[in-house]
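As promised in the previous annual report, we have extended the structural survey to additional targets. Below is the entry for Glutamate decarboxylase.
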Amino acid sequence: MPEAIEPDDLFAMTGLSRGAPKDGFPDHEMFPQVAYEIVHDELLLDGVSRMNLATFCTTWADDYARRLMAESLDKNIVDKDEYPQTAELEQRCVRMVADLWHAPDPAAHVGTSTTGSSEAAMLGGLAAKFRWRARGGAGTPNFVCGPVQVCWEKFARYFDVEMRRIPLRGDRLTMHPEDIAAYCDENTIMVVPTFGQTYTGLFEDVAGISAALDDIEAKTGLDIPIHVDAASGGFLAPFCAPDLVWDFRLPRVKSINASGHKTGLAPLGAGWAIWRERADLPRELVFDVDYLGGSMATFNLNFSRPGGQAITQYYDFIRLGRRGYSRVQNEIYRVAQHLADGLGASGLFEMIHDGDPRRGITAVSWRLRETQDFNLYDLSDRLRSRGWLIAAYPLPADRDDETIMRAVIRHGFTRDMVDLLLADMDRCLTLLRKHPLGLTRAEAGGFTHSATAAVPADQIASAHG
Ligand SMILES: *Cc1c(COP(=O)(O)O)cnc(C)c1O
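The corresponding structure token record, generated without further manual editing, is:
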């Protein structure tokens, strides 16, 4: 037999015996099945996404969604002229989301798909900054918020806007509407309530914040708009707490972002940004691309971007409709409440958010009722040994002496899985009571609920000042 013929067992092929190229660009080619096996096997070391209760993002998709994603692998959403139906489906989604969020005039609103809430938040923030400038704003623009996701720190730093984060006070973990006035001035471009906090899962009181801003306007004449970060609440409250007023029903709400790839149920890489009216999106942010012999407005930070996410989001919307989303999301809330009940029954934990659809998202957050020999980082670490990824982390800066834990329950997580988790938690707690670890946040493993800035904002400010 000639020497050069490869053995027909994959694991005896030379590519695998050479190992995975790691440093520098590889010199040689390998058979695709060998390269595939190397990559596939390496990924076995990743966590199991459906057991990852630290993420807010979609970890379950049905076969039709997977099929549409595979079929649209080659669709660039920016090529509106070449793929006009992809553009059309995106526009239908924008109209559907605007309708869901009660945009008052279907002919007037504008919106776009994005890669996620971060891009959508940047666009909402930029629009507010440009509107402020058009009103004659000069000096350093600022925005006012409570404990926000890291995308708002990014917005502040990348686009030179001062972030005025109202410190927490009392036992409340969301922004107090009555605190806002002290932080607003003529350079405040917007107030950003979070509708579904990343820390706790709780909704901030958008209607209360709007009323506080009405008061400020009556007293000072300052007319300050609201951008709602509804990353995960935007596809929950419309179905499960429809009477909660947080969206365009409040005239002060000029723009809203949400992540299609969180509670919107779309695959990773889908977000939405919607403005109440065309005038709320300054012309400077809009670029035109060719579309069916004419042109179409685009306003994104990216140029090329996959089209499958918007396509599959459209599939989700028409497949489920309002009734289907209500059924799916209410069931997720029930599963979250089942977890909260189980945790509460242990007597060890105090619930911060127990999965009540009127108070927050499909998540549960809790703290230790009293000090124990072990801490929540220990618990997070022990649970990880069974494959459960559940984040423990400190509260925001002004309350960072306190550690909490949060589990985000998502489509595809069942009551039965909650029971398995609670049984594992019981085992972990029994062990930790005997052998507490006393881990620090850094020691408890490299994953947390969100990114944090490498250089805290106050240090940047002092470096500048
Ligand atoms: C997840 C999240 C973001 C960031 O959204 P991505 O879709 O991950 O970019 C922003 N704000 C809140 C409140 C979030 O939960």
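The chain has three domains: 10-46, 63-319, 330-463. Confidence is low (pLDDT under 50) at residues 460-465. These points will be discussed at the next consortium meeting with the crystallography subgroup.
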